[in-house]
Amino acid sequence: MDIVQKQLKVVRTRLDKYPVFQEVEDKTGAPKEIVALGLAVVLGVAIIFGMGVGSLSSLVGFCYPAFKSFQAIETKHKGDDTQWLVYWVIFAFFSIMETFVDLLLYWIPFYYAFKLAFLLWAMMPQTKGAKYLYDTFLKDLLKKNESKIDAALAEAKKHAGAMGSEFASATSEVATAVSAAVKGDKKE
């Protein structure tokens, strides 16, 4: 039991850095280390049983890296810029892949728990998982297919421009027809 008490004291000392836990302790009367452990258990159960984990993994995969990217942009040191740019390339690639195999992923048990672990591994500066994936797999794939990707993007841009022009023309025609109809109603 002494080991548990010592660990709880360590947790309490670490939680002293976060005023929100002190506020919760003051309002509820529950020790902040117990509140934190309770939150960890609830989060763990949610991850294991998949309740809201899709949203949680998306938030974790986006919010922390977005904030760190903002911080990287605002510093003069450019090493962290590269880390977060590589992360976003991996995140985008992963998101696109996930879109195409979404129906299959539904049947994989604990998929979102694995996704959350993957995203944490990819984003953590200690592991540099995104950089590892980029250097090991993605960089060569992108470099080898760069001309094909550029051609596909140019073609998409051309089609998007044509569609935009058609949409603008159709919108103009509808607006003209509506305006004529409104003017016709006023004359009657």
UniProtKB/TrEMBL annotation:
Q: What is its main location?
A: membrane
- TM region(s), chain numbering: 34-64, 84-101, 107-124
Task: List the keywords (alphabetical).
Answer: Membrane, Transmembrane, Transmembrane helix
Q: Does the keyword Nucleus apply?
A: no
> In its keyword annotation, does this UniProt entry include Transmembrane helix?
yes
InterPro entries referenced in this protein's UniProt entry, alphabetically:
TB2_DP1_HVA22
Where does the record place it? Membrane
Q: How does it sit in the membrane?
A: Multi-pass membrane protein
Q: Give the CC-aspect GO terms.
A: membrane
Q: Name one Pfam family in it.
A: TB2_DP1_HVA22
Name the family. Belongs to the DP1 family.
Entry protein name:
Receptor expression-enhancing protein
Query: Which species expresses this protein natively?
Result: Fistulifera solaris (Oleaginous diatom)
